[in-house]
Amino acid sequence: MEIVVIGTGYVGLVTGVSLSEIGHQVTCIDTSIEKITKLKKSISPIYEPGIEELIEKNVAANRLFFGTDLQAAMKNKKIVYLTVGTPQNPDGTANLVYLEAAAIDIAKSMVQDTIVVVKSTVPVGTNEKIKKLIEENTQFNVAMVSNPEFLREGSALVDVFEGDRIVLGANDKKALETIAEVNNAFAIPIYKTNLESAEMIKYASNAFLATKISFINEIANICEKTGANIEQVSTGMGLDSRIGSKFLNAGIGYGGSCFPKDTAALSQIAGTVNHDFKLLKAVIEVNEKQKLKLVDVLKTEVSHLQGKKIALLGLAFKPETDDIRESASQVIIENLLVAGANIHVYDPIAQAGIQAVFGDEIVYEKDIESTIIEAEAVLIITEWDEIKAIKPAIFKKLMRQPIVLDGRLIYNKAEMSSLGIKYYSVGDGTNASYKTDY
Ligand code: UGA
């Protein structure tokens, strides 16, 4: 089938590329000439493993096209995917200006009845509002399908081709069946529901996963004080298939462009229908606190941070992405700057994003060794393979009195302690070699 995808961010690009990979003719539209120029040369504007190879393959097969002209793209296509961003407003609500602007553009470019598939994460009721907005600006009929996206940055292609389910919501049966047909070749179970439920499934799924993370982080905080070990506790919990082992990794909280934004939006949506979503508010609060966990520990270990070299390993909100939005690294750096620390950072991919925020207030290193040499303490923020591969002896060799604060549970406490390294790992209260009091 012939499809137009509006937006070439994470969701849009992965959607366009994957739809072309399963055989559809796809034109991806973006207002950014810079992005489109790059994409035409098969250069991805986002860092996502495997995406450039697939762009190249499908462009060569004449199934994938890029452009800035929506009107031209919609000339003979009656399916349009909307994937533009819905960033967070200061009050937590989802900002729908890009979505509304794109809806008006669609209306003005329509030359026949059209199905609009919304992949952007939007509050319940938005699809109906977008439908009205389009209808006010065109003489043709529009049918809406909500198709929330569940991909994770860094493993987006695996998630798209091997996902657990595809959710399609519509109040128009014919449109629902057409989009189900578009998705058939993914060979993933399709769950069909109404528009509003599909919109809610997306928020509820992200909020539930965020709840799992805040829950396990709270258990980790208690483990530290009771002699238990969080990794063993979460493994033991996860063996119960009703609980499941995924998203039970304790650490320094969740970041990124989705969980923080969507939990805030859902809490706000609940408020608009006079529901005080207490549980979700607690999830958010726990997460904010957890992001500063390593700083709290550091301050008990190094009394005066003024002028002291503190090393941060990893800056991205998780590995395999250059995204630093809502990452723990940002709040940690802000906090350490206030304390006057001399901050040295290293990340294999995400350094540029942090540099755009902090400029010359901190030092950007080119490798792990130069980051940790002579450092007073090392904070492990992101579990990149390169960072997980660091041999503990390196800390001993390069740091004067090694203190390693691990937000991603990489090392074995006994091994670190046998090397004379002061080691703190979130949620590890075992073996008393370095018992903490926080
Ligand atoms: C998340 C969801 O996992 C996707 O299903 C959803 O499509 C996406 O949001 C979205 O709404 O667009 P993403 O933000 O890319 O995906 O990343 P995740 O892999 O879910 O990780 C989010 C954060 O949680 C990261 O900071 C990660 O370090 C943290 N996390 C994750 C933990 O702290 N513990 C865990 O066990 C899992």
Q: Largest beta sheet: what is the strand line-up?
A: 3-2-1-4-5-6
CATH superfamily of the largest domain: NAD(P)-binding Rossmann-like Domain
First-residue to last-residue Cα separation? 58 Å
Q: Class by helix and strand content?
A: alpha/beta
Number of helices: 19
The value of Rg in angstroms is 24 Å
Give the beta-strand count: 14
Contiguous low-pLDDT stretches (5 residues minimum) are: 432-438
Distinct small-molecule ligands in the complex: uridine-5'-diphosphate-glucuronic acid
Question: Your description of this structure?
Answer:
The protein is 44% helix and 14% strand. With 438 residues, it is α/β, with parallel strands linked by helices. A six-stranded parallel β-sheet has the order 3-2-1-4-5-6, with helices on both faces. The N and C termini lie far apart (58 Å). The structure holds uridine-5'-diphosphate-glucuronic acid (UGA). Uridine-5'-diphosphate-glucuronic acid (UGA) is lined by residues 121, 149-153, 206, 209, 213, 247-249, 251, 254-256, 258-259, 317-318.
Keywords:
438 residues; alpha/beta; Rossmann fold; N-(1-d-carboxylethyl)-l-norvaline Dehydrogenase, domain 2; 6-stranded parallel sheet; 19 helices; disordered C terminus
Summarize the structure.
This protein is 44% helix and 14% strand. The protein is an alpha/beta fold and 438 residues long. It folds into three domains: 2-193, Rossmann fold, CATH 3.40.50; 202-288, N-(1-d-carboxylethyl)-l-norvaline Dehydrogenase, domain 2; 290-434, NAD(P)-binding Rossmann-like Domain (Rossmann fold, 3-Layer(aba) Sandwich), CATH 3.40.50.
